[in-house]
Every structure is written in C-alpha cells, then in structure tokens.
Amino acid sequence: MLALRVTYLTGRVYSAVFDDGDAKAEPEWPPHPSRLFSALTAAWGDGGGEEELRSALEWLEQQRAPRIFAGEHTPRKLVQAFVPVNDSETLPDSRPRKARAFPSATLTHSDVYFVWDAVPGSEIRAGLDRILQRMSSLGHSSSLVSVEIADSVVEEGLTEWVPGGREGSRMRIPYPGRLEQLIAGHGRFERTGSKVYRPSAGSTTLYGPKKAPGRDLGRSIFDRMIVLRRDAGPRASLRSALSITTALRGAILAHAPQPVPEYLSGHGPGSTPDRSVRSERPHIAVVPLPFVGAPHATGDVIGAAVLLPNSLTREERDICWKAVSSVEDLKMPWGWWEVSGGGGKSRSPTPRRGGARCGQTPGLVHARFGPR
Length: 372
Prior knowledge:
This protein is of the alpha+beta class. 25% of the residues lie in helices and 25% in strands.
C-alpha cells in the first residue's frame, strides 16, 4: 500500500472545479487525483526535472485510481476580484485587469489521504519522497500544503471515496501517458503563453462514498395497536401528552380484570400500592397521537394509541382489546375527553374545521407498527 497524506496548513482549500473554466464558481472537494499528480509533476519540474525521479511519476500514472479519505468542507462566500491577466508579455502594472473569483472552503479536517493498493519499490518510494518535499501547494498557490508518505490512515472523521462506482462524483485521474502530456503542454504554454495549451481534463471515473456494511435494523416489540380518537372535549397540545396518556392508562386498568395482569400494568408479581416491582416481561405502551406532518398541521393531540407487545397470546390480546374498548372518556386535571375507536371497527375519519382529519396521524402510526 502507498498512502500520501496531504495536510492543508491553513485548514482551507483554494481550488476551482475544472469544468467551471474561467467562471470558477465552486471549490473542488475532495481534491481530484489528477490535481495531485499535476502538482507532483510541477514540483518535479520546478526542481529541475531530474531523469532519475521521472520513473517515480511514471510508476504512479500506471496505477489504478486511488481511494481518497477526506473530511467535510464548508464553501466560503465567493468574492470577485480584479487582477492582472497572466497571459501577457507586459509588466503587471501595465496589464489589463480581469474579474476573477477564487473559490475556497474551510475544512473540518486538514488531512486528506490518497491510498493506492500497489506497493512501490524502494527506489520509487525514495523518488516520490524527494518530490513530495518540494510540494508547497495543491490547487491555487494559496492552498498551502505539506505532503508526505504515511504509514497508516487515520480514518476518524473522514469519508472514504472509492473509485469505479455506478454513481457518485466524477473525478479526474492520472493515466499512462499523462506525464508526457503535461510536459508537452507546459512547453507549448511557455513558448506561446496561450491558454489553449493548458492541460486537458484527461480521464475521469466515478467516485462514491464507501457504504457502511449492512446492519440488522432493530425491530419493535410491538406489532399491533389500538387507536382511540378524541370525539369531544377541549383541544390539547403536546404539552398535555403526559396527562392524556396517564388518564388513558388509569382508565384501562380500571376496566381490566382484577388483579390486573402484568402485561397491562407493567408491574411484576409481588407489587403493592406502596411498593411496585417492575415487570420483566413486555407490557402495553400508551402513546399520544398528534396531528403533524401535513401542510396545515396544528400539533394538537387528536387521539391516543395503545401498543400491544408481540409476545402476547391471543387470549391476552383479547383481554387488552376488551379493556381498551370499554374506555369512553378520559379525565385529565384540565378537562375531560370523550373517546371512541377501541372496538377495532373501521371508521371513517371525522372532518375537523380547517380541513384537518382525526384519522391522518393515527393512520401514519398504524402503518409503522403494522395492522391490527
């Protein structure tokens, strides 16, 4: 394995998306492998373009696209500046000024890793190390970096980008012959100063974030529910949820057989009015049903539901249904409700003022926990 660690020394990146051309509207992130290869080639050329180091770059362009480990970035506000054009033979003070923008982003993690699965020989590794020592920027000259060969990748907080996927972000990558193209293009640009000889985009491939291994999603212990809706009584917000569910639980226990089974009360054997013992077996849960998730939702609690554990026997479920369906009113400290629906019969939602319907939220919860 070969891993190159790029550290952005200022915690900020300046580099424009290649396809933007002169528009330069967005920062490129993560940095494309071809950008790194071009920077390595420039560092090699600035140092004299030694022939003994050329083989290191030729080896790198022969490898398959690397994996990239990079953190999140926050694009900065784009500011327009007027700067002298570069492709002019006059002195900077005499050059015409052109509107330019320099896209940049703040990084959550200053380190980026490029990882190749191939293992270079000692001479190639030494040659790459010499070139890396000359690198000072990646992208715009103000993107100050240090680059070194890393023994391992610190993955915490970083996203792994994997090449060759069916979907994702298209990134530029080096390929066999890219080094020679960069050298030839640079020579023509030096002679003419024309931007038409700047490097082309070259080859690209799709990169996508590596997906985490599939995990078994937890399943609820509840598989049935009994819905009660408010037919009469004062409106109530979610702030009243606890008083509503407390009143419903008390009403259910009052209509339950005596002594109350622990799958209804949640109290284990040996419980007394002065000292309750928590039941170790699953028992019913009581939840509020607010009107939410619609354009004109009010957040009002329009009913309540009793969730039945999947461990109940048919006889125990029948006892629950009978106790809940016997509840006709709920008494809270701030008022009382008339409720209905516990008998299990299908009933059409009752229209409410403003187009709201009582059946909307219970229907959503019902779909989540399954049919009765």
